[in-house]
Amino acid sequence: MLAHTILAGVALLGPTAASSAKASGPEAATPAVTTLYGGMPIAPGFHAFGGVNDNRSHGQVGDNWLSINEAIQLHNNTLFYNQLSAAEQARIQLIPGTGTSTFLSWARFDGSFTPVITIEQDLDVIVNTTYGLFLSSDNGPTTLDFSGPNVTRGMLATTNSLQMRDFVFSGGPYGIDVLQTTIAGQIGFAINDCRFEDHTQFGVRIRSTTADGIGKGYLERCVFDNIPTAMIWDGSATGRTDFFDLVNCRITGAGTGVDVIFGVGGVARHRFDRLIVEATTAGIVMDRPSGADRPAQIFCTHVEARAPTAMVIDGSQFGSTTIEMRMVHAWSTGAPNVALDLGDTLSDIAGLIEDSTFRGAMTVERLSATGPLTLYNLRVDSGNVGFATGAQPLTIDDSRFQNCTVTESASGQVTMTNCCLSASSLTGQNGSPIQCVDSYIATVGAGVINNTPRPQEQLGSLNILPDAPAINSTVTFEADLPNGLFGALLLGFTERLPVANLLSQPLHVYSQVNNTFLVPGILRFQQQYLWTIPNSLGFVGLDLVGTLAVLPDPGVSALPVQIAPGRRFALQ
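^ that's the sequence the OP posted. Answer follows.
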């Protein structure tokens, strides 16, 4: 859509001085405005670009105001240019280079002129067209208020090409419900800088309806608040090829944060980057109904999930699930105390989870795995940890388990190197014991061989409080270090492409190399470093990563240097 560039000569689509003098209504006539491109008049009748200026969703065709529903009808070709009044026609312009397009493909809003649009009744369904529909708000967001008594749903779209920017969806059953057939040759669903609040069902749902089709959803800088389920990706149709991204989004006050449903056949790629979820029931759930064997690739970086059940990722025996998780913090906030539930008994789960923390129970089951799984530099706290692996190995390196009961319930190959099990026990299978090297284990159970054990605890952790720091407050960096270790605190600006710039383990620092600073002094035991954030709006949005480099005192048996999992935080 945005490939159709609007050149500098295209005239206004915000309110004119005459039109902004009164609220919308048929009595407030707006004079027609000559549409110019490059200083030359354009013949009316061919249009693709409209400026919505009605604070009512439907208004009345032929009045002086172009409403959001009229814009949708113009897009759908159920309303035509010659049916509009002169004032409404003045809101329509041709996008240069699009030919004689007879439907509206870009609707612009002005948040300073129509900050709130009252949805009077259900909007027309946005249908599929060649160029799709782009809705954008300038000069601040436009709120679409769906809380009225005549509204039975939110915005419904049966299109494969829908883009939105800078809107607030407020009240009503839901924000946006999108049905996709196949997006081949089209943009899919992409929204930026939108907020969804106070819905009774969900914020955004994207559904597939056509077998063997392609689906895509991309959400960036979106906020969800006070919704039973914030985001739903329903890929249950057979044979789908799905692409789904949540980037720099925040979910608060939800029952369930993200709900992904896999289907049979096809392939899926899901990416979560700089995602924060705070939910009362479940944070992120990736569910496979019976028979859903779709191979899936799941990428997570800088993901925080805080809920009683923080993260659940189902697996399949017949379709592989490949995991790549970095800087994931899945923390249970209450019963049933589940931090991560990965796979089930016969799942094919493989990949890498590193530099991440889990608080609560952790389960990894992968008896049908066709590739290895590596857990590197994890911190797992206060829960039962269960592994079940088959022919493919499970490798656990440089990881610390604290107040945990760790068990391997199958006969696959499990190795642990440079690990620390503090106030924790480890039990394996006698027929295929867990092989441990250079590790400290507080309580060694049956089915464990501990080669060259370390005589004392090693590895450290870093906690950063509060979860969402704000200006004019204090950020607390709290170390958790065994005796004989000390930590150096690093603070830097978040690197947006951390994987490409990471050094080899154990030197994973996720901040920008040239913008990472060593905080003076060292930390021991549970010592803290306090940073008071100035009360300045210039600090809002500052995106930072805190990291603790852990080193041993002379003569202490520990890694010479180890980077504890850090944490990204953005100032509010």
